[in-house]
Amino acid sequence: MVKLGVNIDHVATVREARKERNPDPVAAAILAELAGAHGITCHLREDLRHIQERDVRLLRQTVTTHLNLEMAPTAAMVQFALELQPDMVTLVPERRQELTTEGGLDVAGHERELQQIVQNLRAQRIQVSLFIDPEARQVKSAQKTGAELVELHTGNFARAYHYESGDQSWLAERSRLVDAATLGHRVGLRVNAGHGLDYQNVALVSNIPHMEELNIGHSIISRAIMVGLDKAVREMLEQIRLGESELPRK
Ligand code: PXP
Questions:
Q1: Residue 216 CA: which ligand 1 atom is closest?
Q2: Predicted confidence (pLDDT) per residue in 218-243, tens digit
Q3: Residue to mutate, 195, 197, 211, 233, ligand 1, most ligand atoms under 8 Å from C-beta
Q4: Catalytic: 185?
Q5: Is residue 195 annotated as part of the catalytic site, yes or no?
Q6: Which position among 70, 94, 135, 213 bears the catalytic label?
Q7: Ligand 1 site, residue 80, Cβ cutoff 6 A
Q8: Which residues contact 10 (CB under 8 A, 6 or more apart)?
Q9: Is 218 an active-site residue?
Q10: What parts of the chain have a pLDDT lower than 50?
Q11: Which CATH number among 3.20.20.70, 3.20.10.10, 3.30.420.40, 3.80.10.10 corresponds to the domain 3-245?
């Protein structure tokens, strides 16, 4: 089945609102794994607004499935990852003022630098994924860097699905994801996706050909506040499976 990577950043967001010890994203990761998550994702941002170094170090010791560290492609972060040895690094762009990651990495514009970073990480047997917009030129450049995976940015699709539901623009956004996934697979990349996915729209992405893993955070943690994390993760897994078994309708 298409795998679920649970992004636990927003557990840390709540903790950092008070700079206290709770809720602990490390405990959340354990609960998410017990509920069936295939992996845990966290984003160590330069501004440390949610996940802290302490969290990632403890996650490295406690995660038993697959630890995916999202980070900016900076020398300091690469050094940290080489020391920490997550199972996978997803390189993402970072802007200080953004509410969340806005847009994918411009791989086409920074092919050389990224090639070097990918090489350094892969030499330590860390899988590397590049978070990109679903555009052919970004997919082709990602392949040239030597990365094994791409994570397709589903933000535009998710936004179109919810806010422009009067028109059919989400169909065009989904087609862009299908095209990028197909091209990625053709050039030998493994394909993940994420950003803005929720209980309503996820099935339309889990049934895209070649999709391997979806990284989902905000919707799961939001729901967990209401129904508990175990239930929230299990319900997301159900929705992912639904997409694989039938073509969902809006
Ligand atoms: N994938 C990447 C690369 C991200 O940066 C994020 C947000 O941190 C996510 C997935 C998860 O997005 P969301 O919280 O909207 O599910």
A1: 16
A2: 999 999 999 999 999 999 999 999 98
A3: 195
A4: no
A5: yes
A6: 70
A7: no
A8: 50, 217, 218, 221, 222
A9: no
A10: none
A11: 3.20.20.70
